[in-house]
Amino acid sequence: MGKSLLLAFAALAAAATVSAHGNITSPPARLPGAAMAKACGQTGVTAVLQDGTIPLENLLPSPASCQLFLCRGAVFADNTARVQTFTAGQVIPFTAIIPIPHEGPANVSIVNTATNTIIGTPLLVFDSYADESLPALPANNTAFSVTLPTGAGAAAVAANCAVAGACVLQWFWFGTAAKQTYESCVDFTFQAAAAGSAANTAAPVPAVVQSNGAAGGVVQGFGVTPAKRWVNRRFAGRERH
Fold first, then answer.
1. Signal peptide location in the record (predicted)?
2. Which of 10, 138, 141, 145 would suit a FRET pair with 106, their CA atoms being 20 to 30 Å apart?
3. What is the pTM for the complete model shown?
Protein backbone atom coordinates (compact mmCIF):
# COMPACT_ATOMS: atom_id res chain seq x y z
CA MET A 1 0.00 0.00 0.00
CA GLY A 2 1.38 3.44 -0.98
CA LYS A 3 2.45 6.07 1.50
CA SER A 4 -0.39 8.41 0.50
CA LEU A 5 -3.00 5.70 1.14
CA LEU A 6 -1.44 4.92 4.51
CA LEU A 7 -1.65 8.58 5.46
CA ALA A 8 -5.27 8.68 4.31
CA PHE A 9 -6.10 5.65 6.49
CA ALA A 10 -4.45 7.31 9.49
CA ALA A 11 -6.20 10.64 8.99
CA LEU A 12 -9.61 9.10 8.48
CA ALA A 13 -9.16 6.76 11.44
CA ALA A 14 -8.39 9.73 13.69
CA ALA A 15 -11.45 11.59 12.44
CA ALA A 16 -13.62 8.50 12.86
CA THR A 17 -13.24 8.46 16.62
CA VAL A 18 -15.25 11.62 17.12
CA SER A 19 -18.57 10.89 15.41
CA ALA A 20 -21.76 8.83 15.58
CA HIS A 21 -22.66 5.87 17.81
CA GLY A 22 -19.84 4.35 19.89
CA ASN A 23 -16.47 2.64 20.09
CA ILE A 24 -13.49 1.97 22.36
CA THR A 25 -10.66 4.49 22.37
CA SER A 26 -8.49 2.91 25.09
CA PRO A 27 -6.83 0.42 25.21
CA PRO A 28 -5.87 0.68 21.51
CA ALA A 29 -8.57 -1.14 19.56
CA ARG A 30 -8.38 -2.70 16.12
CA LEU A 31 -8.61 -0.31 13.18
CA PRO A 32 -9.51 -1.06 9.55
CA GLY A 33 -6.77 -1.31 6.95
CA ALA A 34 -5.62 -3.03 3.80
CA ALA A 35 -6.15 -6.58 5.11
CA MET A 36 -9.73 -5.77 6.09
CA ALA A 37 -10.27 -4.21 2.67
CA LYS A 38 -9.13 -7.47 1.07
CA ALA A 39 -11.49 -9.54 3.24
CA CYS A 40 -14.50 -7.23 3.48
CA GLY A 41 -14.19 -4.92 0.50
CA GLN A 42 -12.99 -1.35 0.25
CA THR A 43 -16.53 0.02 0.58
CA GLY A 44 -16.84 -1.34 4.11
CA VAL A 45 -13.41 -0.10 5.13
CA THR A 46 -14.15 3.36 3.76
CA ALA A 47 -17.41 3.46 5.73
CA VAL A 48 -15.60 2.60 8.98
CA LEU A 49 -12.83 5.09 8.29
CA GLN A 50 -15.39 7.81 7.70
CA ASP A 51 -17.25 6.91 10.89
CA GLY A 52 -15.41 4.67 13.34
CA THR A 53 -18.49 4.25 15.52
CA ILE A 54 -20.99 2.87 13.00
CA PRO A 55 -22.84 -0.39 13.73
CA LEU A 56 -21.80 -3.49 11.87
CA GLU A 57 -25.25 -3.70 10.27
CA ASN A 58 -24.21 -0.70 8.15
CA LEU A 59 -21.60 -2.94 6.52
CA LEU A 60 -24.09 -5.59 5.40
CA PRO A 61 -24.15 -7.39 3.07
CA SER A 62 -20.54 -8.48 3.39
CA PRO A 63 -18.61 -11.12 1.43
CA ALA A 64 -18.10 -14.60 2.88
CA SER A 65 -14.43 -13.79 3.45
CA CYS A 66 -15.37 -11.02 5.90
CA GLN A 67 -15.72 -11.96 9.58
CA LEU A 68 -18.06 -9.08 10.25
CA PHE A 69 -19.34 -10.53 13.54
CA LEU A 70 -15.81 -10.63 14.94
CA CYS A 71 -14.45 -7.17 15.72
CA ARG A 72 -16.75 -5.65 13.07
CA GLY A 73 -14.50 -7.17 10.41
CA ALA A 74 -11.25 -5.58 11.60
CA VAL A 75 -8.36 -8.05 11.29
CA PHE A 76 -5.16 -8.70 13.17
CA ALA A 77 -2.90 -8.19 10.14
CA ASP A 78 -3.74 -4.48 10.15
CA ASN A 79 -3.10 -4.14 13.90
CA THR A 80 0.12 -5.95 14.77
CA ALA A 81 1.58 -2.79 16.31
CA ARG A 82 -1.37 -2.40 18.70
CA VAL A 83 -1.00 -5.68 20.64
CA GLN A 84 -1.12 -5.38 24.43
CA THR A 85 0.48 -7.71 27.00
CA PHE A 86 -1.71 -8.68 29.97
CA THR A 87 -1.28 -10.95 32.98
CA ALA A 88 -3.57 -12.95 35.26
CA GLY A 89 -5.59 -10.78 37.62
CA GLN A 90 -4.64 -7.55 35.87
CA VAL A 91 -7.23 -4.76 35.91
CA ILE A 92 -7.70 -3.25 32.46
CA PRO A 93 -9.33 0.20 32.29
CA PHE A 94 -11.43 0.98 29.22
CA THR A 95 -12.54 4.27 27.72
CA ALA A 96 -15.48 4.41 25.31
CA ILE A 97 -17.12 7.21 23.37
CA ILE A 98 -20.88 7.08 22.81
CA PRO A 99 -22.02 10.18 20.92
CA ILE A 100 -25.34 8.52 20.02
CA PRO A 101 -26.61 6.09 22.69
CA HIS A 102 -29.01 3.21 22.02
CA GLU A 103 -30.17 1.32 25.12
CA GLY A 104 -29.41 -2.38 25.26
CA PRO A 105 -27.14 -5.05 26.73
CA ALA A 106 -23.35 -4.87 26.55
CA ASN A 107 -20.38 -6.87 27.71
CA VAL A 108 -16.60 -7.21 27.58
CA SER A 109 -15.34 -10.73 26.92
CA ILE A 110 -12.20 -12.62 25.96
CA VAL A 111 -12.82 -14.02 22.49
CA ASN A 112 -10.88 -16.73 20.66
CA THR A 113 -10.47 -15.26 17.18
CA ALA A 114 -10.05 -18.63 15.46
CA THR A 115 -13.49 -19.80 16.57
CA ASN A 116 -15.17 -16.47 17.42
CA THR A 117 -16.22 -17.89 20.80
CA ILE A 118 -15.89 -16.57 24.34
CA ILE A 119 -13.26 -18.10 26.61
CA GLY A 120 -14.89 -18.62 29.99
CA THR A 121 -17.65 -16.13 30.81
CA PRO A 122 -17.95 -12.40 30.10
CA LEU A 123 -15.69 -10.28 32.29
CA LEU A 124 -18.15 -7.40 32.51
CA VAL A 125 -21.86 -7.33 31.73
CA PHE A 126 -24.30 -4.43 31.45
CA ASP A 127 -27.94 -5.50 31.52
CA SER A 128 -28.80 -1.98 30.36
CA TYR A 129 -26.25 0.21 28.62
CA ALA A 130 -26.22 3.54 26.78
CA ASP A 131 -29.84 4.39 27.64
CA GLU A 132 -30.83 7.38 25.50
CA SER A 133 -33.82 8.08 27.76
CA LEU A 134 -31.54 9.20 30.59
CA PRO A 135 -30.67 12.91 30.91
CA ALA A 136 -26.99 11.92 30.87
CA LEU A 137 -25.16 8.64 30.48
CA PRO A 138 -23.76 7.17 33.72
CA ALA A 139 -20.02 7.58 34.06
CA ASN A 140 -19.46 3.82 33.95
CA ASN A 141 -20.84 3.63 30.41
CA THR A 142 -17.74 5.35 29.07
CA ALA A 143 -15.11 4.60 31.76
CA PHE A 144 -15.02 1.09 33.20
CA SER A 145 -12.56 -1.71 33.84
CA VAL A 146 -12.35 -5.49 33.69
CA THR A 147 -10.30 -7.88 35.81
CA LEU A 148 -8.62 -10.71 33.93
CA PRO A 149 -9.11 -14.26 35.22
CA THR A 150 -6.93 -15.99 37.79
CA GLY A 151 -6.61 -19.62 38.78
CA ALA A 152 -8.22 -22.14 36.43
CA GLY A 153 -9.68 -19.30 34.37
CA ALA A 154 -6.22 -17.86 33.79
CA ALA A 155 -4.92 -21.26 32.69
CA ALA A 156 -7.65 -21.49 30.06
CA VAL A 157 -6.86 -18.02 28.77
CA ALA A 158 -3.11 -18.70 28.75
CA ALA A 159 -3.65 -21.89 26.76
CA ASN A 160 -5.45 -19.97 24.05
CA CYS A 161 -3.96 -16.47 24.13
CA ALA A 162 -0.16 -16.82 24.28
CA VAL A 163 0.27 -15.80 20.63
CA ALA A 164 -0.63 -12.35 19.29
CA GLY A 165 -3.77 -12.41 17.17
CA ALA A 166 -5.22 -15.49 18.84
CA CYS A 167 -7.44 -13.58 21.29
CA VAL A 168 -9.08 -10.21 21.75
CA LEU A 169 -10.84 -8.38 24.52
CA GLN A 170 -14.07 -7.56 22.72
CA TRP A 171 -16.49 -4.83 23.76
CA PHE A 172 -19.92 -5.84 22.48
CA TRP A 173 -23.05 -3.68 22.63
CA PHE A 174 -26.46 -4.24 21.06
CA GLY A 175 -28.92 -1.35 20.75
CA THR A 176 -32.26 -3.08 21.27
CA ALA A 177 -34.69 -0.64 19.66
CA ALA A 178 -32.16 0.48 17.06
CA LYS A 179 -31.33 -3.17 16.22
CA GLN A 180 -27.69 -2.17 15.87
CA THR A 181 -24.54 -4.01 16.97
CA TYR A 182 -21.27 -2.39 18.01
CA GLU A 183 -17.93 -4.13 18.50
CA SER A 184 -14.41 -2.98 19.34
CA CYS A 185 -11.51 -5.38 19.87
CA VAL A 186 -8.21 -5.12 21.73
CA ASP A 187 -5.52 -7.60 20.65
CA PHE A 188 -3.43 -9.00 23.48
CA THR A 189 -1.15 -11.77 24.64
CA PHE A 190 -1.64 -13.29 28.08
CA GLN A 191 0.67 -14.68 30.74
CA ALA A 192 -0.64 -16.67 33.68
CA ALA A 193 0.95 -16.14 37.07
CA ALA A 194 3.87 -18.35 38.06
CA ALA A 195 2.99 -21.66 39.70
CA GLY A 196 2.21 -21.31 43.39
CA SER A 197 1.65 -17.57 43.27
CA ALA A 198 -1.39 -15.97 44.88
CA ALA A 199 -2.85 -15.03 41.50
CA ASN A 200 -2.43 -18.60 40.26
CA THR A 201 -4.27 -20.16 43.20
CA ALA A 202 -7.06 -17.61 43.61
CA ALA A 203 -10.62 -18.33 42.53
CA PRO A 204 -11.61 -17.28 38.99
CA VAL A 205 -12.79 -13.69 38.75
CA PRO A 206 -16.57 -13.56 38.13
CA ALA A 207 -18.17 -11.16 35.71
CA VAL A 208 -19.71 -8.08 37.29
CA VAL A 209 -23.18 -6.88 36.43
CA GLN A 210 -23.52 -3.16 35.89
CA SER A 211 -26.78 -1.40 35.17
CA ASN A 212 -26.72 2.29 34.31
CA GLY A 213 -24.17 3.28 36.88
CA ALA A 214 -24.87 0.88 39.74
CA ALA A 215 -22.45 -1.98 40.26
CA GLY A 216 -24.22 -5.24 40.96
CA GLY A 217 -23.21 -8.68 42.16
CA VAL A 218 -21.96 -11.76 40.40
CA VAL A 219 -23.65 -12.44 37.10
CA GLN A 220 -24.74 -15.99 36.35
CA GLY A 221 -24.34 -16.07 32.61
CA PHE A 222 -25.32 -13.12 30.44
CA GLY A 223 -28.02 -11.21 32.27
CA VAL A 224 -30.44 -10.34 29.49
CA THR A 225 -34.09 -11.22 29.65
CA PRO A 226 -35.44 -10.34 26.17
CA ALA A 227 -34.12 -12.39 23.25
CA LYS A 228 -31.68 -10.38 21.17
CA ARG A 229 -30.90 -11.26 17.58
CA TRP A 230 -27.10 -10.92 17.59
CA VAL A 231 -26.69 -11.34 21.31
CA ASN A 232 -28.14 -14.81 21.03
CA ARG A 233 -25.64 -15.65 18.29
CA ARG A 234 -22.83 -14.71 20.64
CA PHE A 235 -24.21 -16.35 23.77
CA ALA A 236 -25.87 -19.49 22.45
CA GLY A 237 -25.81 -21.99 25.30
CA ARG A 238 -24.55 -19.39 27.82
CA GLU A 239 -27.50 -17.17 28.54
CA ARG A 240 -29.70 -17.78 31.58
CA HIS A 241 -33.06 -16.08 32.08
1. 1-20
2. 10
3. 0.76
